[in-house]
Amino acid sequence: CFCYIELYEMGWNLKDGLRDCLVAAAPYGGPIALLKEHNRRSPSARPQLEIFSSSGLPLASFPGKSGVVKQLGWTVSDDLLCVQEDGTVLVYDLLGGFKRHFSMGNEVSQSQVLETKIFHSPYGTGVAILTGALRFTLATNIDDIKLRRLPEVPGLQGAPSCWAVLTQDRQSKVLLASGPHLFILDNTACTPVTPPGLSPQASSIVHMCVSFSYKYLALLTDSGHVWMGTSNLKEKLSEVDTKIKGSPKQMAWCRRPKSQQPSAVVMWDGLLLVVGECKETIQYHLEDDSILVPELDGVRIISGTHHELLQEVPGACEEIFKIASMAPGALLLEAHKEYEKESQKADEYLREIKEQSLLSEAVRQCVEAAGHEHEPETQKTLLRAASFGKCFLSNFPPEQFVSMCKDLRVLNAVRDYTVGIPLSHTQFKQMTVQVLIDRLVYRKLYLLAIEVCRYLKTPEYQGVSRVLKHWACYKVQQKEESDEVIAKAVSVKLADAAGISYSEIATKAYESGRTELAIKLLEFEPRSGEQVPLLLKMKKSPLALSKAIESGDTDLVYTVVMYLKNELNRGDFFMMLRNQPVALSLYKQRLEARIAHLQSAVDEYYKAKNEFSAKTTEDEMRLLRFQRKLEEEKDEQLVGFSLQDTMTTLLSVGLHKHAEQLYKDFRMPDKRFWWLKLKALAEKEDWEELEKFSKSKKSPIGYLPFVEVCIKHHNKYEARKYVAKVSPEQKVKAHLAVGDVEGAAEAAIERRNESEISTVLSRCSATTDHLLVERLNRAKATVPKK
């Protein structure tokens, strides 16, 4: 049993409806993106994209980037994805603001996009591409792009008749149909599969769809049969003959989460067909071009004039409203109606329910049915009946009733035509309150979001404060109002809000080019530790130093002083310190402490090594000479409690001459010094100085450490410079470290080392490096056995 619910009369004014339009609607009552056909085919023209709410009210209209658009889709966070023919994916926010772009790889760019699907997986939003070369490329999560090229389908001569993305065992796969054959593509293999019990009359599969949860699958054959079963193709649930053999425009799964009845919706021009477990079908005639939007508990149908929801009638609603129903909920509803008429029949109905001890069940049915209804008057009727029944129960828990009343008030508010989020109660519970608040914030519906938070008593840091912070970040980007007006408005609105960081709002103002506004907002930030970093970033050094001193936090003051020392020239630095006696005094104290640490470190070194000998006087002279240099440099960063710590610190702050002097004066082993300097230069990413160091003389530690330290800091370009210098016995390891498998193979073959050849073989791909694998195996066979 299915019901057809009208959600909205669409507010847009589309001259030709949805004809010749590329349309994408987000699930959970999300927004609708629309692109006219004549706007998407020109490679040079900029397509005009339009975004509407589910009620058809405009949210944004903007020109996209130039290029042929192949597909539109939505992410789980309501960002719009625009897939272009060259494999570029553009990401826009809900109101049309460009966020970023990414590519689906060189192969897609060269072969061009033939078809694409945007899907949701446990990892996030994914994109699947079928290229002109008939190969599939997947990105399972667009927020962490890892492209996967799926195996080739044997014997595939043209585009598959249909395909879909499946999510099974936390892995995304592609199911495709080529004629009568079905294949599943995963990371490693292309596996032919056969749906159990598929009609023998079928010679090809022309359409397929996956359920919202990816657990079920529906296949439409050229003979007009719809096969429904589990998505792992192990179990058949139903098969129905539609008696229509034409290829449909769209097909979608339509099943409630806890329903036992499989059902799918197939749409042709002007006709919508619902097929289920029984052999009968339900037909609906469509007056306009429409699209189907699969939902958790049904299918939304959007046309140029209307927006409707088709779903299986919820069990509680069916029990109460079916003709001549004797269900407890139906009797309680009748009892309440008679009570309002002041009829004694109300007592008769109540007695009948009580005699069966089903009054609690009757109340529960009415509450549940109210949640599934979209009409407020029907909701009220059912809730009044439930409230009436509760009066005759002494121990009925009120939580379910109270919670449903709150949920319905929120749902009715967001379903309003001006908001246009037609959530069902099932979807709302799956989505959670936090996500709904986020969606309202994305639409800039801050007042409604705050009212929802307050009504549902959401914790302030998750609710009102979070919404106000988003509002303030949006407010400071507005160019129409002056800095003073915005700063005052923000301070007034946020005065009583808990846990809001003004520094985050000030940062947004600074990023929008409003430095003075950012400074004004920082005045409201009570934590100096939050003020100072942004002031330094804005190059407001004197103000940052003053704020740090006002805080009384010596560590914060010292952090600012060190930042200024690195940013300013020597003269300006000491001039600023003279104007800040507190900072100057602290700087002197730290400087003296560092020198004292150095003296203590050298004393400990002598004691540990027991090197006081006839040369003590000469060594002491070296130490005094070195200390004098440090005092002249006034380098307060020198921290050391051992000789090695001191050396590391000198290298890390760039005092290479001092480090080398210490190395010579105290006879540090060559290998230790080279290791320390190598690590220090790599930490600083001073690649030019590292190259000079490598050429200064022959390295006592070899050159493999140079390769490894560059790779550790993600710089293969620099690492390759040192591969040629690596000793022969380490050549294979060096080549593999920089990803040069062929070079590693050459080195292993030249050395005729079986272990090294095996190591290289383990890094080769059987599909892309088969020639190299053969060569290595031949070489391995000629290696003499030990």
From TrEMBL:
Its main location: membrane. GO terms for biological process: endosomal transport; intracellular protein transport; vacuole fusion, non-autophagic. It is found in: Late endosome membrane; Lysosome membrane. It is a peripheral membrane protein. Residues 500-589, 590-780 form the Vps16 C-terminal domain. It comes from the Eukaryota. GO terms for molecular function: actin binding. SUPFAM superfamilies: WD40 repeat-like. InterPro entries: VPS16, Vps16_C, Vps16_C_sf, Vps16_N, WD40_repeat_dom_sf. Residues 6-402 form the Vps16 N-terminal domain. GO terms for cellular component: CORVET complex; HOPS complex; late endosome membrane; lysosomal membrane. Keywords: Endosome, Lysosome, Membrane, Protein transport, Transport. PANTHER family: VACUOLAR PROTEIN SORTING VPS16, VACUOLAR PROTEIN SORTING-ASSOCIATED PROTEIN 16 HOMOLOG. Plays a role in vesicle-mediated protein trafficking to lysosomal compartments including the endocytic membrane transport and autophagic pathways. Believed to act as a core component of the putative HOPS and CORVET endosomal tethering complexes. Belongs to the VPS16 family. This is Vacuolar protein sorting-associated protein 16 homolog. The lineage of its organism: Eukaryota, Metazoa, Chordata, Craniata, Vertebrata.
